[in-house]
Specification:
This protein is of the alpha/beta class. The protein folds into two domains: about 10-130, Rossmann fold, CATH 3.40.50.720; about 155-185, no CATH class. The chain has helices spanning about 20-30, 40-50, 65-70, 85-95, 115-120, 135-150, 165-175; strands spanning about 10, 35-40, 55, 80, 100-105, 125-130, 160, 180-185. A six-stranded parallel beta sheet has the order 3-2-1-4-5-6, sandwiched between helices. The protein has a two-stranded parallel sheet with strand order 7-8. β1, α1 and β2 form a beta-alpha-beta unit. It is globular, with a radius of gyration of 17 Å.
């Protein structure tokens, strides 16, 4: 996680999703102020229950003004974005000079329209999330994640459905009704 200090203000989009919900928990644990953005008021409430200081539905008009009001003059320093499109664009506009925008997904299915010159002019770094390819590095990430889940530091969101309901699971995923990860079992 690209946090520098507990003074960081972190925006997490897709905050009720599998990765986003873990990012909310980790940033909160590190002491950052966490702004969670999710695709419904129900999902925003879930992100708040995971530790986000403030949470908003990014589909509701005026959410960027709500974020600014909630931060009372503090400026976001890091954004972890799993949505892309218009949401990534709006989050980019919220970041302060020297901010970092980390891309980990594109749930919207549409790319954000942000020109490289805009990143340069605002001194914002765009960082794609990368998974290390070295086996030892992957094992370290895996063991750290499993330790955090086992200790209760992270509460992964998992919906378990029977394999016979695979069609319903796909419909829920496509309609963005799910939170966390969906696992099908026999």
């Amino acid at each position: 996680m690209p946090l520098r200090t507990a003074d960081d203000v972190v925006i997490v989009t897709a905050a009720a999703g599998g990765l986003g919900s873990l990012f909310v928990q980790e940033a909160t644990e590190l002491g950052a102020t966490v702004v969670a953005l999710a695709g419904s008021t129900r999902k925003a409430a879930l992100a708040r229950s995971l530790g986000a200081g403030v949470a908003f539905d990014y589909q509701r008009p005026g959410w960027t003004a709500d974020v600014r009001d909630a931060l009372a003059g503090r400026i976001p320093t890091v954004a972890l974005d799993g949505v892309d499109g218009a949401v990534r664009r709006a989050v980019f506009e919220l970041l302060g000079r020297g901010g970092r925008l980390v891309r980990f997904g594109w749930a919207s299915g549409a790319p954000a329209q942000i020109d490289a010159r805009e990143f340069s002019a605002r001194d914002v770094a765009e960082v794609p999330a990368r998974i290390p390819q070295q086996p030892d590095a992957l094992r370290l990430l895996e063991s750290t994640a499993l330790e955090k889940a086992a200790s209760g530091a992270w509460r992964p969101r998992v919906d378990v459905l029977p394999l016979l309901r695979a069609s319903a699971a796909h419909q829920a995923l496509e309609s963005r009704a799910t939170t966390g990860k969906v696992v099908l079992v026999r």
